[in-house]
Amino acid sequence: MLVVDCDPQANATAGLGVIPESARKNMYDLFMSRVEGFPQVKMTDIICSTESGIDLAPANLDLVGAEPYLYGIATRAEVLRDALQPIKKNYDFILIDTPPSMGQFVINGLVAADHIIVTLDSGSFALSGVGPLFTIFEDIKEDLGKELRVDMAVISRWGEAGEDETNKPQEPQKGNLVSWLRSLISLPHTPTDEEKRSSEERAKEHERLQEMLAGIEKKFTDVHTVPYSPEVYEAQMKGMPLSHVAPESSAGIAYKTIADEVMRWT
After folding, report:
1. CB distance 224 to 260 below 8 Å
2. Which of 29, 32, 53, 248 is 20 to 30 Å from 173 at the Cα level?
3. How confident is the model at residue 204 (pLDDT cuts 50, 70, 90)?
4. By residue range, what is the domain housing residue 223?
C-alpha cells in the first residue's frame, strides 16, 4: 500500500512516523518538477518506507509554495495522475490524502482517484464544504470529461469523549461493598441543577448529531461514523496506524468495517 500526502499540513506523513522536515524530496518537488526550470522528480524518487510497512510519498509545509506555480500549467489538474501512472501496478491500494480546503491539490487528488471518500468531523460546520466539493465535481466533468461521485462518507470523532463511560452502570469499589449495597435500597437521587443542565445539553447535542447525520445521508448513499477514541491520538503520537496500535478500540473496529468495505471495491 502507498499513501500519497498532498496536504501541506503533512498529517499523514507524521502519522506514519516520518518527520515532515526530514524528507529530502517530497510532494513539493514532484509538483514543482512540472514547472519550467525545476529539476525532474519522479514518484519513485520521493517514496520512502515506514515502520508500519506502508510506503509513503511524504509532504511538508513547503508544498504550500507549489500551488501558485500550478496555475501556470495547462495540465495542472493531471500532475498527480500522470506521476502515479507508472507505479500503479506496484500497489494493491494507493491512498491520496488531500487538504481540507479546496484548491489544486484537492483537484489533483480527485482526478487521480478511482474512488472518493469524503471525511467529515462531527462539528457544526461539517457540511459547509460539501457544496464547493460538488461544484468542483462539475468543473472537472466540464473541463476534463471525468464523471466523479462519492463512494463513501466518513464522520470522525462521532459522539463525545467519555460518552461510553457515562453509560456504564456503577460498580462497587473494592472495600466499599456495604456502601454500594446501601445505595441500592436508598431513596432515588434527586438531580442537582447542574446535573439537569448537563442532561439537557447532552440531549441537545444528541439531537444536533442526529439532524446532522440525516443531512449527510441525504447527500451520500454510504455513510459511516467513527466514534471518538483516545487511542487514535495514541496511534498518531506513535507514528503508526490505529490498526497496529489499538485494533480493538471503538474507532479501530469502525475503521476495520470501513476497510473491509473498501477491499470489496477492487
Report:
1. no
2. 248
3. confident
4. 2-163+191-263
